[in-house]
Design a protein that fits this description.
Number of strands: 12
Number of helices: 10
Largest sheet: 8 strands, antiparallel
Low-confidence stretches: 4-8
Order of helices and strands: HEEEEEHHHHHHEHHEEEEEEH
Distance between the termini: 28 Å
Mean pLDDT: 94
Helix content: 25-40%
Radius of gyration: 19 Å
Strand order of the largest sheet: 2-1-12-11-10-9-8-7
Strand content: 15-25%
């Protein structure tokens, strides 16, 4: 299904989007809502190549680091409930990790990637989980041996760290006394009425879950953790993400002050991009877009919403890189047609 962009599909970004959607490089779902209208709804490619099952608008996708938003919102809801404060120290919440670190990270510094903790993954590697037994990486504690090997840097500078979000997952488990998936369900997805979002095993994917495919065409099973966690991998679909963004924008998940904290620009990345606390901020079309990017072997995702209008951009792909191209083209279209 494809709906043409309103007022300007014939410009360069619109043409490039159309060509991308109809190329072999694209497999996934894209949903763009602008001022409450949906100029784009498109599903293309195959969710399961082995049996020829196509992607549909309802297909669920593993989303890699898009899951960091859910970790951040869970921490925010715990702050609103009085369970913790953003300035609280990890070692006070999870005393068992104190002996491993010279510095005591605050929740805020981990959320903003400014704690000084490096990463346990090489995001530039073709297969960043190579050498890890991904079948055992089913909970935050299982990642801890790898997190402890992450390099340390001076605190106060932006250094993207999935390792830091694993530690936030341990904090959530300690604060809620629940496993991370159950805590996310109780504190985030159930209050947001996100009925199709959660943590199924991608090794035995349900019928509505898209299989991720590497550049060589093989499935990504065995190359990524089978179950998502606090640094990424939550499974969801376009409609649930639209619901999530509606709840955030309308103040149904977080207090205004907590949402403002998460969405506050902390680390400039470029003239049009910055990072807050668990969210990227992109500026285009006279608006600020709050969301996250996700990249794993066989997965590319890019999602964002705007507070100044009923608008969102959702690109979920079971192939590599395509979602990033979609997002860039949609932002270019916004700049050319709205500004």
């Amino acid at each position: 299904m494809f709906t043409y962009m309103m007022n300007g599909m014939d410009n360069s970004p619109g043409r490039e989007l159309y060509e991308l959607f109809h190329s072999s490089a694209f497999s996934g779902v894209v949903s763009v809502t602008i001022d409450g209208q949906q100029p784009i709804e498109y599903a293309g490619g195959l969710a399961n190549r082995a049996i020829g099952r196509p992607n549909t608008l309802a297909t669920r996708f593993a989303t890699a680091s898009v899951g960091k938003m859910f970790t951040a919102v869970c921490i925010g809801r715990l702050v609103d409930a009085g369970c913790c404060k953003f300035e609280d120290l990890l070692g006070d919440i999870v005393p068992s990790v104190q002996r491993y670190f010279d510095q005591n990270f605050s929740l805020a510094s981990l959320l903003s990637h400014r704690s000084g903790l490096g990463d346990y993954l090489d995001d530039d590697a073709e297969l960043p989980f190579a050498g890890m037994d991904v079948s055992r990486l089913t909970c935050p504690q299982a990642f801890l041996p790898y997190v402890l090997q992450a390099p340390r840097h001076e605190a106060g500078q932006f250094r993207y760290s999935s390792a830091g979000f694993v530690l936030l997952g341990l904090a959530i488990e300690s604060l809620t006394e629940q496993p991370y998936p159950a805590a996310i369900a109780k504190w985030v997805t159930e209050p947001a009425d996100m009925r199709l979002t959660g943590f199924p095993s991608i090794d035995q994917p349900p019928e509505d879950l898209a299989v991720g495919y590497l550049a060589n065409g093989s499935p990504n099973i065995g190359h990524v953790p089978s179950v998502g966690g606090p640094d990424g991998g939550i499974v969801t679909n376009a409609e649930d993400l639209r619901q999530f963004f509606r709840c955030l924008s309308e103040g149904r998940l977080l207090s205004d002050s907590t949402r403002e904290f998460l969405w506050r620009s902390v680390s400039p990345i470029s003239s049009s991009r910055a990072y807050g606390h668990g969210f990227y901020l992109d500026h285009a079309g006279g608006q600020t877009w709050y969301g996250h990017t996700g990249s794993d072997p066989g997965v590319s995702t890019r999602v964002a919403c705007s507070m100044t209008s009923q608008s969102s951009i959702i690109a979920l792909c079971n192939c590599e890189s395509a979602a990033f191209s979609v997002f860039r083209l949609v932002l270019r279209w916004l700049d050319e047609t709205i500004c």
